[in-house]
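Before a computer can learn anything about folding, someone has to put a protein's shape into writing. The outcome of that step, for a single protein, is printed below:
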Amino acid sequence: MRRILVAAVATVVILTAGSSFGFSAKGQDCSKCHALKKDEAANILKEIIPSVRVGGIRISPVKSLWEVDVESNGKKGIIYIDFSKRFVFSGSLIDVKEKKNVTQDRYEDINRVDVAKIPVKDALLLGSAAAKKKVIVFTDPDCPFCAKLHSELKKVVAERKDIAFLIKMFPLPIHKDAFDKAKAIVCEKSLRMLEDAFEKKAIPKPKCKTDIVDQNIELAKKHGFNGTPVLIMPNGRVVAGYRDAAAIKEMVDRK
């Protein structure tokens, strides 16, 4: 979505440190200000994204910009429109003081998934089944970043008994042996076998017939997951890529 939007934007306003834009402490709800209506925002953006649909509109953390939730071809994203309604900005707003990607936080918020609709009967359990907070993880047995993340997940469950991880196999086509390894792991429902794969140990051939891995791949495609690892937090936020244990705990505890 980000590539599509960036490529489509004809005029970009660039925000730099020390600019005349002031920062507010918190984005203000623009639902009652009537300064920029949804149909007006859609008309502005259709010049560059013909299929755009506009969701919520609010004043961004940077004054003089509206933050607009958009959807195009089934993908959701964030675009900023300035108060003159002439300039459009597609990209990330970074809060330097807080060391936080404001746009990414909002992107994750509007792209939450319904955790209840993610089947986890096939998932490998890392941590206690009694843990109140469960994170769903899509992983690939041949993905180096997945292996690195797995080490951090083990640190989390060692430190927090209230957090557990439900790990689903999502082999990527770029890893030619990953599908059979994932299927073998599902057949045995073996966390140890997954960890052996991460350690580059030999994995036996699948010992059962199952379409669970195929179902996981289709589910991942449906939600727009095109890489690994992917974490789905208890609140439905989707986080792609490696994170360390401290970051994972912070995201799990976020409302």
In short: Residues 1-34 have pLDDT under 50 and may be disordered.
